What we know:
The protein is about 85% helix and about 0% strand. It is built from 6 helices and no strands. The chain starts with a helix and ends in a 10-residue tail after the last helix. The protein has about 150 residues and is mostly helical. The protein is elongated. The chain has one domain (about 1-140).
Amino acid sequence: xxxxxxxxxxxxxxxxxxxxxxxxxxxxxxxxxxxxxxxxxxxxxxxxxxxxxxxxxxxxxxxxxxxxxxxxxxxxxxxxxxxxxxxxxxxxxxxxxxxxxxxxxxxxxxxxxxxxxxxxxxxxxxxxxxxxxxxxxxxxxxxxxx
Length: 146
């Protein structure tokens, strides 16, 4: 079960990163032009939001079933002194939780914003911040190990 969830988390993370990048780029291009915020733009944001929430859910399940997390939680003092364990059980999850919260806020604010340019700008800011946060704590050493 652990390996299946880890594999799903790995591939959903790729999808989430692509969709967050797409939503961010869409926001940049839309805020610098006279484009109308259409249903297709809202769907891009929604799909990015769904992917990030799915990634977060799988990651939280991993925190419960992962042998690395179980070992770290048994002695948090030692885990905090170990950079790899600290990144796996503290920095990576909490940074990604913040990123998902930002994506959620961005999705809600872009729906409520008045004016097309404002909707695109809100999407760019919040989805861009979420993307940067996720990239900042991505375990690059494990990225292509599957």
